[in-house]
Structures are given as C-alpha cells and as structure tokens.
Queue: 2 jobs
Job 1
Amino acid sequence: MSKGLKISRRVIMTVLFLAALYVTWTTLSQVPVSEILGSDYDHPDDIHAAPSLREELGVSAMKAAPHAEAASASVAETVSALEEEINWSQYPVETVTATGYTANAESTGKAPGDPAYGITYSGIPVHRDVYSTIAADPDFFPLGTVLFIPGYGYGVVADTGAAIQGSKIDLYFDTIDEVYDEWGKRDVEIYIVKKGSGEISEEELISLNDQRVLVY
C-alpha cells in the first residue's frame, strides 16, 4: 500500500471517529447544536410561537439576562427560607388565581421609551425582589396590601389590570423566562399579611426590601 493511500485512510478514519464522538456527545448530553456553537437558542416554547399561551399567561417575550437569573435565584432562596421559618397560619388565607406578567408591550401595551413604561398604577416602577410589585383588584386587595405568595414571595399591590378582577392577581417578573420557569398560571393559597390603605410609595417598597423580612 502506498504511503499516500495510508495517509488518506488515516484521515478518513479520524474524521469518522470524530463524527461518531460528536453524535454520541450530543445524544447523551442533549445539548443543542446551536448552544454548542455559542449562537442564540430560542426557547422551544417561545411565546411568539404560541399567541394563545401568551394571552393565557399575560406575559411578554423578554429573554432572561445572566444578572436577572442570579437575582431570581437569590429571591427564590429567601422565599424558601421564609416559607419554612414563619408561622403563616397567623394570617388570613385567600385562594386566588395568579398569573405572571412583565413590563413589556404584550403585557402592558407599553414599550421601552414610553414615559409610562414599567410604571404601575400607583406611580412606582415595577420591581422584583423579596417584596415585589403585583397587580390586583383594588376593591378586593387595596393598593398597599402586602400578600405572601408561596413560591413567589411578598407581593405588594401597586398595580391594577382590566382582566384582574376579584380573586385574581398578576405577579411581576423581570423576564418571560422567569414566568415560564417559575410560575405560569396557577391557583394558590396566599396569606394576607397587611391590608393596604389604598396607596403605596416607592420609599415604602424600598424600605420593605431593605428589611427583607417583615412580620406584622
């Protein structure tokens, strides 16, 4: 066998080996090709592809940023600790239907650049933390009402919505991925920590989050 033929066979065998190794890796790891290459990877259930689901969840198509994911993890850890450490039976309980929303146009009708973008009915900016801004029916939960929602954290009623009537609440999230991964839509028992006076200020919300845990 000539030297050139031997080299050709070795090259072919190497290529076949690498191809087999690649197929095995992607099959076992379930990592998409686009992710391996470092390109953008759309959520398989991207909300743009499912308008009925978008309407059902009441959320917009905003993708998650690394810092948002880190902040979300921190909030989740605190909420989990609160659920275990506080005796929630001391508070009145209400069963509600809770959905999630973001500040984007598909949830609020407003886009970045709009002076009212990200501003709640109460006038304070939307905010996600241990104490987050949420929307509710003010006849059911007046502005300033503090609720504890298991799996979400404290919700401070600062916003309203035409579809949020009676025993419905809308929970603010920074991104659409958080709505998908952390909430969606569910019926949940919530705890009424403090009944609101009908108003809430940004300073009050900041103060609540500075304290992190406040039991009335």
Job 2
Amino acid sequence: MTDHLRIERSAQSWTFTLNRPDKMNALNAPLVEALLQGVDDAHASGARMLVFQGEGRNFSAGFDQGDLNSQSDADLLLRLVRVEALLHLVASSPCLTVAFAHGRNFGAGVDLFAACRHRYSAADASFRMPGLRFGLVLGTRRFGDIVGYAKAREILEQTRQISATEAADIGLVTRLVEADGRADAVAEALQVATLLDPATQQHLYRVLESGRPDQDLADLVRSASRPGLKSRLLAYVSER
C-alpha cells in the first residue's frame, strides 16, 4: 500500500483519503493501484459503505501528468486503462459509495467523484473535464447518465469549468456539504447504507446499474490508442 492513500477501516465503512496534497491528489499509478486493491479489500471484508475524500486543498486533480517525458504512449494507455478499471470498480460497488469534493478538481478526479452514488461538495469546489482537449474519452457516458446527454455535450465540448452551485443544479453534486458537516453526512449515509440487508442492497444496485463497462473501456482504448497520445498530452500541458 502506498503512502499516497490513507485508509480508515471499520466493520461497516471504509474511508479512502487521497494523500498527495503537494500534487493536488493527482492520480499517479501507485495511487490508482492502491485504490483498486483497497476497494477490493473493502468488498471482501463485507463493508457496507465506501467514502472517498482528498487531503489538502482539493479532492483530485485527475490523471497525473507530472512525468510524461519518461513514459511512452503504451505506458500512458496502460495507466488510463487502470483508471477506467478503478472507475468501474467504484461505480459497480455493492457498497454505498460516497465522495466529498472541495477545491479545484479535474479529469479523472471528477470521474472518480461521479462514479460514487452520493456526491457531496463544498461551496468552493469546481469541476473541469479537459480530456477531450487531448482526444481522450474517459467517464463520458457516466457523466451523461448523471446530468443528461445534452447538458453533458454542452459542458464537455467546451471543456468548461463547473462551479459547485451549477454542479448541484445539474445533479453532479448531490448536496453541498462543508468540511464541518462531513461527519454528519457520513453518519446519515451509513444509516442509509445499512437500512437494507446486504443481499437486497446489492440486488437493488444491480437492477438500477446503467453501466456498460465493456463499452466504456472500448471507448477509452479507442481514443487513447490513437497515435500521438503523449504528444497531445505534452501539448496540452504546455498550453496551460
């Protein structure tokens, strides 16, 4: 397990805190692998609720672009496939999944937030998904399922930033919750998570699951495997 992820465990609830505050909790490969293993372990333990949050000034800046020069297109593709695997694992979890966002959040960090069933946000939070600027399709259908496809198209084609207020208006954010209200929100969510017996809760989630993981993965790979991924990412980084 990496130092980049803190996990607090109880019999019913596991809390995952992204712990790269100096990098705005960007998702590097070790952090993604730690999250995948941690969520698998929580499922195996019989946990009823998973909570995701970020240390420092935000939830997550998304895909870590800090070491692009040392990586090939193939390296980057594998990392993105693992991110998609994480998103599907969280979105299809038999547990109630809860995320808290604050500060500025980008790309795969927004996708991880959107993969959760209860999505709480501080009023200072903002969300931006710039992946299409470098030709990447990640989390697009899931975002469209949440906010509606017309609204998703409008936001994504402009790659524009969404405020917490707008995110709440369109359904990306379930409720605005400040840091001092997180404990109460977690307690309320845990009551919901344990209201039904585990088998019934899992059946409910399966019936309502709109996910198409094979299609999501195919769309990601099709976009990321187009030659020049690294060059497009470097060009995007240089423009910021």
